[in-house]
Specification:
By secondary structure, the chain is an alpha+beta fold. Helices cover 23% and strands 29% of the residues.
Length: 303
């Protein structure tokens, strides 16, 4: 369904928590997507934002945003070409885990005008439980973890929360970086612009802690290639930290110049999740996603 729905709460929903009500009527929508709709205000009750624990009353009107192909048990049908492409990018799979090399330009889940994301597409190919263990920005490519059992999801989420997962990214940034290594410890705060766009900024008073370790691999004339390890996983962390240095990620349409010559050559944002390490039930896992050729091409042409 590709339109906003307005559902009037009937007797069977009276007194029910809004999150549980949504889980009941949007049976194929991932839990993470439902809670995101509530958190961002896409779901409203009588025109007002509500918390997941809000209890509904008969006669109230529930606004539900577009969730194409996923309403009331309907399964999303991803194009076969997309399914084939995603299958080729599977780095690892077991009964517990699915590891994907996510392509740039594909959101991890649908919503906010995006009809189809990674999770909706893969659910049609992998029956049973399948949920995102973490997120990557739409423009970021690379290693993405998906849990295939509730226990695995709970364990991975706890590992991310306790900062027990090691993540390393590769980025090509605008300009020449003069230092070989840099530790960025700048707190970040999410906010909404007057136009309704969600962004992140450095805020030493109200921001959440965010630590990025940057290592320069190539210091070119017009662009530099860096590796970034993050001890925290804040929204847009790497993008904001690098932009604040004066070296935004090439092709970043929020914190950089997506119309620059380098961005035009890249055709995408040059940020890639290249490596991840974690433990699952006492077993150590490590995965690498191959660097897309465009990273080296752009760096070579930038000098």
């Amino acid at each position: 369904m590709n339109v906003v729905r307005h559902v009037v709460v009937e007797a069977d929903g009276d007194g029910q928590r809004v999150d549980n009500y949504l889980l009941k009527i949007l049976k194929k929508v991932p839990k993470s997507r439902i809670y995101r709709m509530l958190r961002t205000g896409e779901v409203r009750v009588d025109g007002k934002r509500v918390q997941p624990v809000f209890r509904l009353v008969v006669g109230q009107t529930l606004r539900i945003p577009p969730v194409t192909g996923m309403v009331e048990g309907e399964v999303v049908r991803a194009p076969q070409v997309l399914l084939d492409a995603l299958r080729r990018r599977v780095l690892f799979q077991s009964e517990q885990l699915l590891v994907l090399d996510k392509p740039a330009g594909l959101a991890v889940h649908g919503g906010s005008g995006i009809a189809l994301g990674v999770i909706e597409a893969l659910k049609s190919s992998y029956p049973g439980f399948l949920e995102l263990a973490h997120r990557l920005d739409r423009g970021t490519s690379g290693v993405l973890l998906l849990a295939r059992t509730p226990a695995t999801l709970k364990h991975l989420q706890a590992s991310f929360r306790e900062r027990e997962v090691r993540k390393r990214y590769r980025a090509v940034v605008e300009g020449r970086i003069e230092v070989s290594a840099l530790r960025i410890d700048e707190p970040l705060k999410r906010y909404t612009t007057t136009g309704g766009e969600r962004r992140v900024k450095i805020d030493s008073e109200e921001g959440q802690s965010a630590l990025s370790q940057v290592t320069t691999l190539v210091a070119g004339v017009q662009a530099s290639t860096v590796q970034v390890e993050i001890d925290t996983g804040r929204t847009h962390q790497i993008r904001v930290h690098l932009a604040n240095l004066g070296h935004p990620v090439v092709g970043d349409d929020k914190y950089g110049d997506a119309t620059s010559d380098l961005a035009a050559k890249a055709g995408r944002m040059l940020l890639h999740a290249e490596h991840i390490e974690f433990n699952l039930e006492g077993v150590a896992f490590s995965f690498d996603a191959p660097l897309p050729a465009v990273f080296e091409t752009v760096q070579s042409e930038a000098g």
